[in-house]
Amino acid sequence: MFLKLRKDTLKNKANFVLRSMILSIATIPAYAWSDAFLNQIAHPPHTIKPNVPFNAPSGYSPAQIQKAYGMSLITNQGEGQIIAIVDAYDSPTIEADLGVFSTTFNLPSCTTANGCFKKVYASGTQPPVDADWGTEIALDVQWAHALAPKAKIILVEAADASNGSLLLGIQTAVQQGANVVSMSWGSPESPSQSQYDSYFNIPNVTFMGSTGDSGNGVNWPAVSPYVIAAGGTSLTLDASGNYISETAWSGSSGGVSQYVQIPAYQVNFANKNNPNKMRGIPDVSSIGDANNGGLSVYDSAAGGWLIMGGTSAAAPAWAGMIAVAKSASTTPLTGLNTLLYHAATTAYSANYHDIVQGSNGSCGPVCTAGPGYDYVTGLGSPQAQNLIKAITGGGSPGTCTRSAPSVNLNPNTTQIIQQNGSVTISIDVVNNDSATCTPSTFNLTTATSSPLIKSALTSSSLNVPAGGGKMTTYMITKASNVANVGSIYTTNITVADTAINRPISTSSYVYIGNALQRKKN
């Protein structure tokens, strides 16, 4: 949830004066601090599964999530990229905790000493420690590193959780050279929020924002048209990390903005139940349900290993994926929101898991996931092996290339049968995707040219490995006892991949020979 454990308050008048001084140094207009929006307190939207043993990780591991979302098929790992994590207050143990996390899961070391990790105080002064925000920091830093193991991490700690202090943190992140910024926090949207959009409209810098954990509703900064809003899902994997299913997580926030007009990239997507043509969030989603799997996080201040979720998990995970995409691109990636929606236009089912079940409230269609874009899961979760290639215009040797399958019939000539006779045809389906792709499930259907013949499949679904993998099913075609002698009947066979809309069809033929000889009494 957007944490309801504690509501931050302004500490005292001295704190107020300090923030005013800080903001006057930054580019926020001098008059702006009088805006109640800047005084508003943001909350980190994470959830923690209760009663979890602290002595060992028991949530999903980085390897499982990498495999589930196709990241394990990408050779780039974020080299040359800088991810900034902007949070409030200080976590004095974060570097050591990151070390435990990295060692446990065999990730590259990320320390101050080797130049991978850096902690910066946005106000120039070390903030006070806050336990809730400290746990948030652990989640954000560790899971950005998990999805982009070779990217550098800058943790920017704001003086407190007010919007004004966090905006200064965002500005500091950009000044520090970040090209991906993760913001796992938010506050209710406001009529004055658009005047701060310039903080997110920075060339070659991508901003990820959590939508919130309170069910249906819209929060800032995720709602900014210059931010990629990340929602949460309930993800089910097998022990090896193979993707089983995914539904909308009931806690994930989302909906239609009251104040932000629909951006051009959403016009063809967030157009249902949106009569005023306003911005919809989220844009994308990934795992957020701590009680169904959840992510392993190490926070020594909280006792050790936790299982965490919330849309707080989705923002840094997506930030890591964006960093990997940027490292795979030969040119700077700008307008990532536009590119993500374009990828849904060109090959939706190849680039995203379309999440069609679940809800985040009782407000009808706006609160309910369904086919295509919806206000609970956005475009869906990534099939990164394809999505990264789509948004970079090429991709690396480790990316997956999808190709249409081959369908071969044996025998593949017209078969002669009698009335009431039958023939068995083998159907071979060959998966021509590159070997780096995950297996594809092909669904087979048949349609006959006449009710005088019937065709039945021994198996209507085949899970075929990529790289030339082949599986076989059989079709039995039978003629009725009144099929027309001398006629040719056709069975059309359609093979469709559930991962991408690329059906292929072929036909089998039978010729009816001699008439059925009936025994005389």
Task: Please tell me about this protein's structure.
This protein is of the alpha/beta class. Helix content is 21%, strand content 28%. The protein has 9 helices and 26 strands. It has helices spanning 13-25, 36-39, 62-68, 94-104, 131-147, 163-175, 311-328, 336-351, 384-392; strands at 47-48, 82-88, 117-121, 152-158, 180-183, 187-188, 206-210, 219-220, 228-237, 243-248, 255-261, 278-281, 284-287, 295-299, 304-309, 352-353, 381-382, 406-410, 415-417, 422-430, 440-448, 453-457, 461-464, 470-479, 488-497, 504-512. Strands 2, 3, 4, 5, 7, 9, 10 and 13 form an 8-stranded mixed β-sheet that branches. The chain has a 5-stranded mixed β-sheet with strand order 19-26-25-21-23, with no helix packed on it. It has a 4-stranded antiparallel β-sheet with strand order 18-20-24-22, with no helix packed on it. A hairpin with a 5-residue loop joins strand 9 (228-237) and strand 10 (243-248). Helix 8 packs across helix 9 (384-392). The protein is elongated. It starts with 12 loop residues before the first helix and ends in a 9-residue tail after the last strand.
